[in-house]
Amino acid sequence: MQSVSTKPYLIRAIHEWCSDHDFTPYLVVAVRGKMQVPMEYVKNGEIVLNISYNATRNLNLGNDYVSFSARFNGVSRDITIPVGAVVSIFARENGEGMGFEYEGPTDGEQEDAPESAPASKDDGGDEPPPSRPGGGRPSLRIVK
C-alpha cells in the first residue's frame, strides 16, 4: 500500500494558521522543468510567492498541485505548482513556518533549472518578498 504524503496537509494547515492570525503566507518553490510560474521572477532556481487570499484568486491547495491566479506587474497570471516542488511555507511577519524536502520532478518534467532573473513580485505590498539563502537544506529565517 502506497503511503500518502503529509506535505499538502501541512501546507494547508500553515496557510490556515497564517490566515487566522492575519499573517501573510509565503510559499518558496524550487522551479524545475516546465512549471507554470512566471519565469522572469525566478531567482537561483526558486520563486517566492505570496499566497494570501488578498493576493490570489481561486486559490486551490490540493494534494497534488497548488494553483491560483495572481497579478505580476499588473498582469493576471495562472500559477500551477506541483506540491513536491514546495520547499517551504512561512509567515512573512515572523518567519514561522515549515520547510520541506524537494521531492524531485515527476514523470515528464526536466531536471534543468531555468535561467535566473531578478525577483520583484507585485503583490500589492510595499515590501519585496523575502528571499531564502541558497544551497543546502531548506531553512527558515525571520524577516523584519
TrEMBL record:
Record Pfam families: SspB
Disordered, as annotated region: 98-144
Biased composition (Acidic residues): 104-114
UniProt cross-references to PANTHER family, sorted A to Z: STRINGENT STARVATION PROTEIN B
Protein name per Swiss-Prot or TrEMBL: Stringent starvation protein B
Source organism phylogeny: Bacteria, Pseudomonadati, Pseudomonadota, Betaproteobacteria, Neisseriales
Gene that specifies this protein: sspB
